[in-house]
Design goal:
Helix content is 63%, strand content 9%. By secondary structure, it is α/β, with parallel strands linked by helices. Strands 2-1-3-4-5 form a five-stranded mixed beta sheet, sandwiched between helices. The chain is elongated and about 75 Å long. It starts with a helix and ends in a 6-residue tail after the last helix.
């Protein structure tokens, strides 16, 4: 039965406030509840000197997850491998804080404040940035801002493929080609022009393109399987849930549960993690993010290709 104009008007009247409420909840709730939650940090040095620092972290129940290392070399390697966000190397002369602003400027600043505040009166705390941000983006705001445009690019590609009726291999090829161009264009702007990325150019382009492909293929795949409602669900999932839950502006461990975990399961969060790893950490720690993006992209493309074939299967004879 076709909906009357009155029913369509009622649907708009009630649907818009629901979407606004969802957007406010998704964006405002994580921002209002930002706090450290099991942030992995390292402690190294002689047992007597390191014990006090470790107790200082543990006093803030649930805020930090302490990893113990034998010496400063092991602690530094853990920071470079993205196992921990920072590490404190204790010695009789004082303490050295190893930070990684490239992993999260917010966490790096938080560690500086926490270690300085817990240090004994008169003790010297030296800060060393193991993974600094490039000069073009000292605050990390440009990289954080890249999550939304990539999501929008993917959603736009997926929606266009659905609206234009591109299915099968043609639809998959259109999504892949668009993602490749998005990756090259974004790397050209962020790395070559703005200088906010300083890793391997092609690895960065690949990370950016894969993020766009994961978002676009997901939207197009849901559209191929469910029609217009599927496209809308995919867009809401990528933009209204994926972006505020990505931790791009802070860190997944600073978001309220379970937002940080959910965000890393979605393309915007996984894409941000992957881009940080290839841009600032020589590709260390990319395993889970690469797997997540590949699954979203692969399943979405499979849905786009398979939907046409499923519709061609004739109904069984009575």
């Amino acid at each position: 039965m076709r909906a009357t104009p009155a029913r369509r008007a009622s649907a708009v009247t009630f649907l818009v406030p629901v979407v606004v409420a969802l957007a406010l909840w998704a964006f405002a709730w994580p921002a209002a509840r930002t706090a450290p939650r099991d942030v992995p940090v390292g402690v190294a040095g002689p047992a007597a000197a390191a014990a006090g620092i470790e107790r200082g972290f543990e006093q803030r129940a649930g805020a930090f997850e302490v990893h113990r290392y034998a010496d400063g070399t092991a602690a530094r390697a853990a920071v470079e491998d993205r196992v921990v966000y920072g590490a404190v190397v204790a010695s009789p002369e004082g303490a050295t804080l190893l930070t990684a602003p490239a992993a999260s400027p917010a966490v790096a600043q938080m560690l500086k404040e926490a270690v300085t505040a817990s240090a004994p009166h008169g003790a010297r705390v030296q800060v060393t940035d193991v993974a600094p941000l490039p000069s073009g983006d000292r605050r990390g705001s440009a990289l954080a801002a890249s999550a939304l445009p990539l999501s929008l690019a993917g959603v736009a590609a997926g929606a266009l493929v659905t609206v234009l009726g591109l299915r099968g291999l043609r639809g998959a090829a259109a999504l892949t080609g668009a993602a490749l161009l998005v990756g090259v264009t974004a790397a050209g702007i962020a790395h070559s022009w703005l200088g906010v990325l300083d890793g391997n150019w092609w690895a960065e382009a690949g990370a950016l393109g894969l993020t766009a492909l994961a978002a676009g293929a997901s939207v197009a795949g849901l559209g191929a399987l469910l029609g217009t409602p599927g496209t809308g669900v995919g867009a809401l999932l990528m933009v209204l849930i994926g972006n505020p839950f990505s931790g791009a502006a802070s860190a997944p461990e600073l978001l309220p549960d379970p937002a940080g975990v959910i965000g890393q399961w979605l393309p915007p969060g996984a894409g941000t993690w992957l881009l940080r790893s290839v841009a600032y950490f020589d590709g260390n720690g990319i395993g889970s993010a690469l797997l997540t993006l590949s699954l979203w992209a692969g399943l979405g493309l499979l849905a786009v290709v398979a939907a046409t074939r499923l519709r061609r299967v004739p109904a069984p004879a009575a």
